[in-house]
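Hi there, hope your week has been kind to you so far. Thanks so much in advance, here it is.
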Amino acid sequence: MSTGLECDIVGLSDGRWFYMLESPSCPSGAWDWRAEDPSVGGPFTSEDAAFDGLRKKHANPGGYQSFEISVEEAIADATLKENIECALGTELAFPPLPETPVQVAHVLVETGKFSYGGQSMMTSPQEDGRMLIDFTSSMGANADILHSAQVSCMRDAASIVVEIEREAGQPDETFENITSDIIGRAKRIYPEEMVVLNFRDAEKDIDTPSL
């Protein structure tokens, strides 16, 4: 018989896998069960190995959520970072500085729907690694897209260059809230690195999927 406890199997971009299992003593309705002294284990070499490790020490939870993220994203999530470090028995370290620029927009721009200062927007990843920002008329499912922009965040050994490619006519002030969030997140995740912010007008309207 399964316990019905929450369970996450987490894979890091460097190939390490971990499990987190809700504590039986976790308060009912807790805001985040991961912050309530869960059982953790790892690192393992694969998702299957992580679940096998879980089953050897704990009763079957009845299912689990599995996902993969970058090491940087794990570090940005304080609760997840703490749990992984508990499993490791040491600090979760940053990846080495890249020899050539790498795209980290997916780390610095969260995916989802947000409202900043009365501005509604939706962010989503693109195939090239950049993030798409759609400014919408509301937070509703059928909201109209007013205008769009693309965000690139290239990290190298010297700095992180954040470039906002916007449709013609959009003033810099339109992006004040989200760029502040990106820069703040960059300074939390990469505290030793300089952040450079640039704006560029798109040569044509930015394609965006239907809501």
About this structure: The chain has a mean pLDDT of 88.
